[in-house]
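Structure in, sequence out. Go:
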């Protein structure tokens, strides 16, 4: 049996990321996958990219990662791009859209937001049709030789951890490390099973919440004179959306 930690949406919040990485280490988990949005919103995008590159075996692209990798005229985005520098922006631009693997006989697909775009948002309360479409093979995800769709799909983007069984398939969201919008605790998931096996075997998904020093994270943003500081601080403290660019 192997364990994989799956995290997402760090958003430049290093105190939250460090708390999650410490928790992963305490659990003896050595394999970490990241579902994007390493940057944006928070004050330490460069450090976030560097830590994720070092810690994670798999990283897929998020909407903020995509934004950082292209020219823009928005002053708030330019602030984050200047922090990143050219080399990190180029690395973000090179990230894959999705990642497929098998575990305990289950075909699993991971991406940031949806199979059609890093910007297409799917919530747990959306229509059954929208949620079932998360299992579709698309031009961006690719399709296996037999055309089969995944048994399980995991994603980030909405900063709201949940798990649903939909007509025999499992849809789960790992929540957000650095900007949770369901409760003010860093969130990630752990998958446990037999990695790479196409044969049925015991399998589990665990959703984990980790406390971290929110006030310290806010002080770091203040020290950096970060744009959108007020809504960022409110979101960290309350885990409620306050109009910050997402």
């Amino acid at each position: 049996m192997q364990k994989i930690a799956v995290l997402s949406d760090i958003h430049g919040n290093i105190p939250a990321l460090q708390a999650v990485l410490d928790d992963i280490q305490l659990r003896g988990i050595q394999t970490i996958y990241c579902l994007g949005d390493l940057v944006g919103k928070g004050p330490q995008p460069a450090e976030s990219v560097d830590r994720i590159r070092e810690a994670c075996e798999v990283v897929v692209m998020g909407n903020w990662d995509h934004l950082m990798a292209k020219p823009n005229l928005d002053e708030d985005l330019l602030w984050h791009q200047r922090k990143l520098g050219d080399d990190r922006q180029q690395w973000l631009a090179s990230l894959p859209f999705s990642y497929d693997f098998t575990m305990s006989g289950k075909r699993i697909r991971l991406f940031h937001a949806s199979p059609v775009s890093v910007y297409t948002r799917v919530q747990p309360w959306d229509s059954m049709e929208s949620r079932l479409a998360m299992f579709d093979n698309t031009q961006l995800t690719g399709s296996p030789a037999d055309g089969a769709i995944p048994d399980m799909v995991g994603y980030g983007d909405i900063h709201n951890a949940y798990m649903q069984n939909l007509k025999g398939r499992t849809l789960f969201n790992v929540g957000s490390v650095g900007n949770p919008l369901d409760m003010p605790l860093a969130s990630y998931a752990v998958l446990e099973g037999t990695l790479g096996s196409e044969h049925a075997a015991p399998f589990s998904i665990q959703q984990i919440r980790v406390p971290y020093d929110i006030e310290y994270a806010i002080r770091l943003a203040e020290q950096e004179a970060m744009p959108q500081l007020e809504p960022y601080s409110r979101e960290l403290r309350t885990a409620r959306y306050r109009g910050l660019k997402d």
